[in-house]
Amino acid sequence: MTAPVLAPDLPAPPPPPYALARLGDVGGLLLAGPDAEAGPESWVDHVARLGAPPSLTGGEILAAIRASGLQGRGGGGFPLWRKLETALAAPGSPALVVNCSESEPASRKDWTVCSYRPHAVLDGAAAIGRVLSAPEVVIHLHGDSLEPRAALRHALHERGDLPGDPAWRLSYGPGGYVSGEASAVARYLHEGVALPLFSSAPLARRGPSGYPTVVSNAETAAHVAAVLGAGADRWHAAGTASCPGPQLLTLCGAVATPGTVVELAGSATIGDILRDAGVDEPPQAVLVGGYAGSWISGSVAWHLPMEPASLSYAGASRGCGLIGVLPHGACGIAETARMVDYLAGESAGQCGPCVHGLPVLAGAMRALARGARSRRALRQIRRTAIALPGSGACSHPDGVVRLVASALEVFAEDVTRHRRGTLCRTAHRAPLFPLEAGAR
Amino acid sequence: MRVTVHVDPTRCRGHGICALLFADALELDRWGYGRAVDATHEGRRSLVQARRAARACPNGAISFTVEERQPAS
User: Fold this and answer.
1) Are the Cβ atoms of B31 and A350 closer than 8 angstroms?
2) Closest Cα to residue A250, out of A104, A399, A35?
3) In a domain, A270, yes or no
């Protein structure tokens, strides 16, 4: 009998802590399946790949959503199960709206999931509808986002009267930045005005109709389908402690293909994600979370895990999952000034602070970018930025202030240079970040 | 009783009357629009002030909620 080999085995190489999948890659939970060439996945392909949606009761679905820890992916990151329980506990029968109206000019994750995986969105929407016993499920999107519109319409046609499906209603709203905000969507469906609403109670407790209104993001709905298909545990394990499950990210700015959507499973740093997108070295700065998000300096962001707990250290949040790359040599002040200009123009014009404050902020940022009267501009920015947060019906002004504050911090050296009146050679280059939602 | 005032910023047009009538709870921002800085107050006097502020607003932007204190048991 031979003695057992005592030499310790070499430790098994650790599994890669993350996986990045694109549309059509095998690895992803949401983006697996046919690639972009194939167009929207048909019902037959969807069922062949994933099987028919499981027939579960509302209680079972809610338990699975709760076990998964799924957080809403529209930007707020609020746990879906808590929103659903709020709606169930509130008086009146809850209404469900799946919000496919992606309004961030550079974000394309909802566009992608609706255009290529419409049945995943609808499966998830039907499941959430069952939890709420909603008589009707509204799928709301910008009327001008043509591909998702065509894909979802065709998908509903394919499903016909599928057993277990609710009554569907497709709703087309106007385009624009604030019209995709949850309360604006709820208000549009109730009174035809797509502007944010002031309310002292959350929508899930009492919407504009007086009934609880759950507005859920399209990606969130698709994740619900994945939770039920893959099992809550497996889905949960594809994420991190502070952001369970896989996440869809849009990469824009100076990456190989701006507008790429990737599905991240596990914990990856922003550097890992960017390396996969053709960025080899830490860029000058990274914009995280959307145009109402935060700039982080490239060297910090490169080693920062793309998850809420780590991002909050850098003063950022996941937002809509946008990662924008500002290369070395580009002018962060000028890029930010253009974004603030755009955001100020997209205000609903309802609340005084937004109406009066944002144009001042935009004008001051423009002046700073030009290097004209920049001392005065900086004073104006500081004064306005103190007065704005928390003053509107929605968080639009708060987001703009967050963007400007992070820009002044990250581009502090450029601010000094612009203030001294040193000519900025890059400020007049074409914008790196898209400034209208027209492309969708 | 506990009174909480809310300003609906979408209705506020910056008349500024509310901040005079309920100065403890409301103030005007840089541009003269009302905002609740210390929204919740105790007592009947606060209820009177909140009601006055709500009635005085030409745009109906001020609302308030009243919570009756539960008797200690």
Assistant:
1) no
2) A104
3) no
